[in-house]
Amino acid sequence: MPNHEGFSDFFYDAPDGLRLHARLYAATDSGRWPVVCLPGLTRNARDFHELALQLSRQAGRKVVAFDYRGRGQSDYDPDISHYTVGVEAGDVLAGLAALDIEGAGFIGTSRGGLITHVLGAMAPSMLKSVVLNDIGPVIEASGLAHIRTYLDGAPKPKTFAEALGAQRGVHGSDFPALTDADWERMVSALYRQTGVGLVPDFDPRLVDTLAGLDLSKPLPDLWPQFETLTAMPLLAIRGANSSLLSAATLAEMQRRHPGMEAITVEGQGHAPFLETGTLPVAIAAFLDRAERKIQKK
């Protein structure tokens, strides 16, 4: 049963037996597609809490927000070589099978969008519509280098106030549009309280998975996987200050998928906070349009 915060915890086994977690936001039986929310590299299901509440309570959709292995309430993997997009895509499919979900609208932020690309190749019938949040088939090496540098030297705050100051200090110039409340939600989602203070809510060894990347060269692209997504309704969201998804890549995505909708979020970088401004309304409206379009076919 949902708790007072509007969701229930769901635990399931990955194909290799690891215990994984997702949040379920229930809705009345409206007959609408459920929505699957996939977070970024070191992020977790809590990032989607406010958006999930709006989609479940106002739009009448069941929402599933996943914690990948090594994040949030999911088990840490003893073998860090399993922290890959392909393995995580398989974990998501296992969770959806456990929930008897055969198709859904997908919302992928950053790494979650990469996983969505892979799911489009692995199980295209599972994806009814897609929202990509500040991610596309081409990842700018400079943007990934910024993420790696930040994670390598990430501050270790012990209090909420210290964490708030640290996050604003690092990311504030890219996110001038955010309010105090936005930053507070971000910090609450990123950290968890322990006996020794706050700690980031992910396996610290995730940082090691970026160590071997040669960012002096262009990164492999996912255009072949993107081609699968051109067969379905797609909304791409880009932060105007993003260094990971370029305006040129967004334009090329639109060229290859003429029906793709796009939103550029002013005053935000990588990745826009989906619960801010008019984004919840825009996402809900897109999901509704996509569902009507598919039903007419």
Helix vs. strand class: alpha/beta
Please write the string of helix (H) and strand (E) elements: EEEHEHEHEHHHEEHEHEH
- Gyration radius (Cα, Å) is 18 Å
Q: Low-confidence stretches at least 5 residues in length (pLDDT < 50)?
A: none
> On the 0-100 scale, what is the average pLDDT?
94
Number of strands: 10
Q: What percent of residues adopt helix (DSSP H or I)?
A: 25-40%
- The CATH superfamily label reads Alpha/Beta hydrolase fold, catalytic domain
By CATH, the architecture is named: 3-Layer(aba) Sandwich
Please indicate the percent range of residues in DSSP E strands (runs of 2 or more).
Answer: 15-25%
Count of folded domains: 1
Number of helices, counting only DSSP H or I runs of 4 residues or more: 9
What is the approximate shape?
globular
Distance between the termini: 36 Å
Order of strands side by side in the largest beta sheet? 1-2-4-3-5-6-9-10
The CATH topology label is: Rossmann fold
**What's the CATH class, please?**
Alpha Beta
Largest sheet: 8 strands, mixed
